[in-house]
Amino acid sequence: MRQFLSPKIKPTPAIFFPFLLLKSSTAIPKTQSLPMSWTCSVCTFINPSSHQKPTCQICLSSQPSSSLALSQSPSPTKPKWACKACTFLNQYDNSSCEVCGTRASASLLSILENDDDDFDELGSGVGDVFLPLRACNSGSTSNKNKRKIWESSIGDANDLADSGNDFRGVKAASREVQCVAGETGLDRGNKPVKIMSYNVWFREELEMHKRMEALGDLIQLHSPDIICFQEVTPNIYEVFQQSSWWKLYRCSVSDDEAFTRAYFCLQLCKLSVKSYSCRPFANSVMGRELCIAEVNVQTERTMIVATSHLESPCPAPPKWDQMYSKERVNQAKEAIKFLEKNPNVIFCGDMNWDDKLDGQFPLSDGWVDAWVQLRPSENGWTYDTKSNKMLSGNRTLQKRLDRFVCNLRDFKISEIEMIGMDEIAGLSYCKEKKVKNEVKKLMLPVLPSDHYGLLLTICPQQRK
């Protein structure tokens, strides 16, 4: 619940809420004093309350002044900023006043541009191009009124409670899904099943609506049965909801859930879904998780389709070495270990995988990498700064970040293709590129995302 103040009323500490770790439905007494963690606005790392320095542990960015002042207060409070026009106290992650729309003095929407002078010593690894993740556009006033602070649901990353299984849980393990009229897996016969995976890119100020419309055109063209999205923001979620294709799918995320996260993974399914579930990774400092759909494909044949956005490389001064390779590899191992108990499993998403840095993807016996299996002679780069002209001006990065890995008993993989590689007709944007001491303006085309999508087709095996 969001509390509002009249601009003319002097705020008191009573109206603030501390960051609370949601370990169960039991309410924490109001008299309990909790130290406050804070999230870095540059790299999204959740700095624990035990970290006493006013700089981020990962990228050394300064703690927001409002958050710093509140953390030094004996009464833990949620950081806010006062609008210079109407004095309304806004949540710190809002870049514009909720009441009058006046922008904060420090914009949360700016995107770090690459300066070649700062990267002379870097190589061609993933982290050399991926600058630290930044907060997404906070969106319209109507959206802001719906949202909660993401960090209040995640809490201190170092204090998450063990749920007793392979993952630490802060979300419900599963949710029943009501089926709607239409074709379900039970009456499909031997029809092939199409699964799409796509990182939609949370950069909202770069033609978000047009990019999502183009992505919707791809959905209507290929008509996937199951869709796995990564980097969906609340605003992107709303654009999807207003699309004509949306009503054909059952969604893994409710409206309430969609407005509690800065960005998240989303699953959509045309088939009969037994349940959706979500399991946060134990070692993630970025709130990453494994999202799972249990789908009825045929009578007595179910399939698990899981997606994730594994830990992102996040290089920053002074060492530029925060690559999170160990965390990423362990997350992949956790996911495979948890999923492999099922006879039919597909795991897809933005793995942020760098074979040179992370090694081979940790597949157990029986698992196959769909791209390697079906198109072994092709590189499969889903992030390519050379072929994706929208990314011109970035340092060169060509990696197979997005993948489908499968362990199937009753199905076989038959086809995989890369989608979203075409420029959006008649659309361009201006990118400022700093080269030494000169700023150059580049007019570049726009594609649906900075990633390319993947579309996998599987077919049922003949029953013996």
UniProtKB/TrEMBL annotation:
InterPro entries: Endo/exonu/phosph_ase_sf (IPR036691), Endo/exonuclease/phosphatase (IPR005135), TDP2-like (IPR051547), Znf_RanBP2 (IPR001876), Znf_RanBP2_sf (IPR036443). It is found in: Nucleus, PML body. Keywords: DNA damage, DNA repair, Hydrolase, Magnesium, Metal-binding, Nuclease, Nucleus, Zinc, Zinc-finger. Coiled coil: none annotated. One of its GO terms (cellular component) is cytoplasm. GO terms for molecular function: 5'-tyrosyl-DNA phosphodiesterase activity; nuclease activity; single-stranded DNA binding; zinc ion binding. Its cofactor is Mg(2+); Mn(2+). Residues 81-100 form the RanBP2-type domain. GO terms for biological process: double-strand break repair. This is Uncharacterized protein isoform X1. The lineage of its organism: Eukaryota, Viridiplantae, Streptophyta, Embryophyta, Tracheophyta.
